[in-house]
């Protein structure tokens, strides 16, 4: 089975906390602060790996977490940075943010990489907070929080060759005879409802062939099933257009041929510009000298396509067809890159949060509550056993106008202010 979508949870490492420590030396009565900085948390990084073919691995492991930074230590020693977590994905994987559905990155080339969750910054040790007034800072900065998000990995099938054609013309039969793939084959329309992939092993380099659902008239506007899968063949380098030349269903092969090409062009004009080889299938039900076949051959060749009469189930003519495909692939440049139709989401903009500094104030019963993102960060860095540290928090709140807001809401001396789960009594003069 071919998996082309997976949902996973990633989490970067938390930054290590800054250390609170003071130099202790014999005969030095009051050593200065010497708490070192915490290490940075590890990033979660996606890397495209040319050796991976599927997203199968992600069905079994769904949680990925980078290492946290080590806390700072005394004697100004830095905590170690957390190790980045590298997640390998197949080339051609799209990484989408689950919450917004935005495309974060399209990993198109072998080795492409991107940071999907940045590790938290290391907190500064108390040695950094010493100044002329504050000789003995009894607090340090907490490490930056870890970032967790759900991402969807999506992979467009990257096949070298795409099989297109009306339903029931023998596309899956051709795939099954050319590769180890085992698609369902049956004598009715839309036997194939999900794409199948197979590796054609011919000469030295194999190539990947994809079989999609049959295409019918109107597919580009959504008729039938084929349109769901046309996107899968956008990135193929070459198309094999399978036509039932026996007219076994009462249709004319030339009309079939034109209709499919018209649908491809309507869906995306680039599809019709791709090199195309014509597989004239079910030749066993007619013959190479028949008028219908000769008429078809002449028509198609005049348009510049090569035609190969084949009978897929009995493996007649298939080798010649595949050899032509392999030869053409070798002479083709990879034109898949300019096929991008996605709007790129500016992932970095996500980090610039206009709301970061805002403090929200409201009343919960008798308690005055304050909430804010930067407030959270400073709050987490506060050492509540140390007056200097609490004062720093208080000054921040005051400077941001939150106290004024609370006073307007009726805050009086002795009232309770709550930040996260910490409650403190309001005193007018700190
Ligand atoms: N006589 C004959 N029958 C064939 C040939 N190729 C395929 N068939 C038969 O045609 C029917 C349809 O074959 P499939 O390979 O399922 O066709 P498909 O194009 O994948 O069909 P959908 O998935 O429905 O679009 C099956 O019954 C096959 O056995 C052929 O060359 N000669
Ligand atoms: Mg099929």
Verbal overview:
The chain has 430 residues and is of the alpha/beta class. It folds into three domains: 5-156, GTP1/OBG domain (Spo0b-associated Gtp-binding Protein, Chain: A, Distorted Sandwich); 161-335, P-loop containing nucleotide triphosphate hydrolases (Rossmann fold, 3-Layer(aba) Sandwich), CATH 3.40.50; 360-425, GMP Synthetase, Chain A, domain 3 (2-Layer Sandwich), CATH 3.30.300. It has nine helices and 18 strands. The chain has helices at 171-178, 226-233, 253-267, 269-273, 291-302, 318-331, 373-381, 387-399, 402-408; strands at 5-11, 44-49, 63-65, 85-90, 93-97, 103-107, 113-117, 148-155, 161-164, 196-200, 207-211, 238-244, 276-281, 306-309, 360-364, 367-371, 416-419, 422-425. Strands 10-11-9-12-13-14 form a six-stranded mixed beta sheet, sandwiched between helices. It has a five-stranded mixed beta sheet with strand order 3-1-8-5-6, with no helix packed on it. A four-stranded mixed beta sheet has the order 15-16-17-18. The longest helix has 15 residues, at 253-267. It is elongated, with a radius of gyration of 33 Å. Mean pLDDT is 85; it is low at 334-351. Bound molecules: guanosine-5'-triphosphate (GTP) and magnesium ion (MG). Magnesium ion is lined by residues 171-172, 183, 191-192, 211.
Number of domains: 3
Q: Kindly, what is the distance between the CA atoms of the first and last residues, rounded to a whole number of angstroms?
A: 67 Å
Note the beta-strand portion: 15-25%
Poorly predicted ranges (pLDDT <50, ≥5 residues)? 334-351
Instruction: Label the structural class.
Output: alpha/beta
Work out the helicity level: 10-25%
**Inertia-based shape:** elongated
Query: With helices defined by DSSP (H or I, 4 residues minimum), what is the helix count?
Result: 9
Tell me the CATH superfamily of the largest domain: P-loop containing nucleotide triphosphate hydrolases
**Biggest β-sheet: strands ordered side by side in the sheet:** 10-11-9-12-13-14
What molecules are bound to this protein?
A: guanosine-5'-triphosphate, magnesium ion
The CATH topology name of the largest domain reads Rossmann fold
- The CATH class of the largest domain turns out to be Alpha Beta
**Do you know the CATH architecture of the largest domain?**
3-Layer(aba) Sandwich
What string gives the helices and strands in order? EEEEEEEEEHEEHEHHEHEHEEHHHEE
Q: Specify the oligomeric state.
A: single chain
Per DSSP E runs of 2 or more residues, the count of β-strands stands at 18
Main sheet? 6 strands, mixed
Nearest-angstrom radius of gyration?
33 Å
Mean of pLDDT: 85
């Amino acid at each position: 089975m071919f998996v082309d979508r997976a949902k996973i949870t990633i989490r970067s490492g938390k930054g290590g906390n800054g250390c609170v420590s003071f130099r202790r030396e014999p005969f030095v009565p009051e050593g200065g602060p010497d708490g070192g900085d915490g290490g940075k948390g590890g990033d979660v990084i996606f890397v495209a790996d040319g050796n991976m073919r599927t997203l199968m691995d992600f069905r079994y492991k769904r949680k990925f977490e980078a290492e946290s930074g080590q806390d700072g230590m005394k004697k100004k020693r830095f905590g170690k940075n957390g190790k980045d977590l590298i997640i390998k994905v197949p080339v051609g994987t799209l990484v989408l943010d689950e919450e917004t559905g935005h495309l974060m990155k399209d990993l198109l080339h072998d080795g492409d990489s991107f940071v999907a969750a940045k590790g938290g910054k290391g907190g500064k040790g108390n040695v950094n907070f010493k100044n002329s007034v504050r000789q003995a800072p009894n607090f340090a900065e907490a490490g930056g929080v870890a970032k967790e998000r759900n991402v969807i990995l999506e992979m467009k099938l990257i096949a070298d060759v795409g099989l297109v054609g009306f339903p029931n013309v023998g596309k899956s039969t051709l795939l099954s005879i050319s590769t180890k793939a085992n698609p369902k084959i049956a004598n009715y329309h839309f036997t194939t409802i999900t794409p199948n992939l197979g590796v054609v092993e011919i000469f030295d380099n194999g190539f990947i062939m994809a079989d999609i659902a049959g295409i019918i008239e109107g597919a580009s506007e959504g008729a039938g099933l084929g349109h769901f899968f046309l996107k899968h063949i956008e990135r193929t380098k070459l198309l094999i257009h399978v036509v039932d030349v026996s007219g076994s269903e009462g249709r004319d092969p030339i009309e079939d041929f034109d209709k499919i090409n018209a649908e491809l062009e309507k869906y995306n004009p680039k599809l019709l510009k791709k090199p195309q080889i014509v597989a004239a299938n079910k030749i066993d039900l007619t013959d190479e000298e028949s008028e219908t076949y000769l008429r078809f051959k002449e028509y198609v060749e005049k348009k510049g396509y090569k035609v190969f009469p084949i009978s897929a189930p009995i493996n007649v003519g298939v080798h010649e067809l595949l050899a032509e495909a392999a030869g053409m692939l070798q002479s083709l440049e990879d034109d898949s890159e300019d096929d991008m139709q996605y709007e790129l989401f500016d992932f970095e903009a996500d980090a610039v949060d206009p709301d970061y500094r805002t403090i929200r104030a409201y009343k919960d019963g008798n308690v005055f509550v304050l909430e804010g993102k930067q407030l959270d960060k400073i709050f987490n860095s506060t050492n509540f056993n140390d007056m200097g540290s609490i004062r720093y928090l208080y000054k921040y709140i005051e400077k941001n106008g939150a106290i004024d807001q609370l006073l307007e809401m009726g805050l009086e001396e002795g009232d309770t202010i709550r930040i996260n789960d910490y409650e403190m009594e309001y005193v007018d003069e700190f």
